[in-house]
Amino acid sequence: MKKKMFKTGMLGTVIATIVLAVLTIAAVLLIYIIVDSALGHTNLVEADRYDDFGYLDAKYMSDSFASDDDGNKYVFVQTPEQKDGKVYYFIVGLPESVYNSQEIQHKIHETQKEDGDETPLRFKGTLEQTSAELDTAAQESFSQMLDIKKDEAESYLGHACVFYSKADTNLANMDKGMWAALIFLVVAIGLWVAEMVRGISRQIKKNKKIANAKTLYETNSDYQNGVRQAEEPNAQHFKAARVYITRDYVVSYQEGLEVFRIDQIRELYGYDQRRSSALMGFFFGVFASSRMDHYLVALTSDGEVHQFARLGMALKLHNQMVTLLMQKNQEMRLGRMNTPVSEVLQSQPMEKLNLAKVKGFYGSDDIWSGRSLNNFKVE
């Protein structure tokens, strides 16, 4: 019994935090991959799909072997030795103005020299699929250049062409779907981090409250008697609300152990708290973004305010709990209008108590309004 009442729920918080952390890390990595690709940090030797944007290092560059109707020139490029110890050949498409530039022409001329400059020339572009016409022209020229059979040229070149890009990044060419994905991931990361912080903060508060409850249990006779009475056969257990109503006490263990005497309750009313979750709203829509929790609030004669029995659907279980409390203490007042129990019983029998019909019992999200005690503190 005592072990159950002092449960911190730490395991659930740890699991939730780990799940959110894993999701956050995965989203960050995915954003990194997308942005890194758009910024051209991908070596096109390692590209595995058409439309990938990245860079290519050209150790050697041939003269133009073909051109298209737009005036673009096509050349062969040999890369430096890669990490796997191999060199690779690519067809590269260059706009005519780029092809005629000093930088490109210098590289072509140096390639043609026996002792030419082999310093790689880096440029950026997009990996595109070649047309059948370009494949035919490329394989014929390449086979002559390397003195190999035409069908062998295909194994060197494949069916891909790197088309030169003036832009240093590919951000301008990213489609709406990719931008939407990036925005979604950024928002999701923000919500996941906020949810982690909120969950950890709640857990810290709960741990402090439970630590305080353990101290009270060791030093306060009411706490000891309340827990002892909760083990008696006639104690009523409201599991959904995590509340015991015993002979003399209300014992709540919903958010840390709290015990108070029933005969000390001066006022009892409801408190509605709206809880918002941007995370739920983001993934499941606006109707899932908030929920209403209903509490019972007891003001006791020692000036303390006890908030307990939090429920999403309050009426039935709250009716049952308040009925029991009324049987044990008919001196308390109900609702924010401070209606005496005797007056409530004049309008409805105790066994059919409906708190929604008690004026001012529910409907307020202000925990303090309607109180008559001048001095109090939250328990």
Number of contiguous helices:
11
Strands, total number = 17
Q: Give the overall shape.
A: rod-shaped
Instruction: Profile the largest sheet.
Output: 7 strands, mixed
Q: What is the N-to-C order of secondary-structure elements (H for helix, E for strand)?
A: HHEEEEEHHEHHEHHEEEEEHEEHEEHE
Spans of at least 5 consecutive residues with low confidence: 368-379
The gyration radius over C-alpha positions equals 37 Å
Give the terminus-to-terminus CA distance: 22 Å
Name the structural class: alpha+beta
> Which quaternary structure do these chains form?
single chain
Helix content: 40-55%
What do the pLDDT scores average to? Answer: 84
Outline the structure in words.
- By secondary structure, this protein is an alpha+beta fold.
- Helix content is 40%, strand content 23%.
- The protein is built from 11 helices and 17 strands.
- Strands 1, 2, 3, 4, 5, 6 and 7 form a 7-stranded mixed β-sheet that branches. Strands 16-15-12-13-14-17 form a 6-stranded mixed β-sheet.
- Helix 2 (10-38) runs antiparallel to helix 7 and helix 5 (132-146) crosses helix 6.
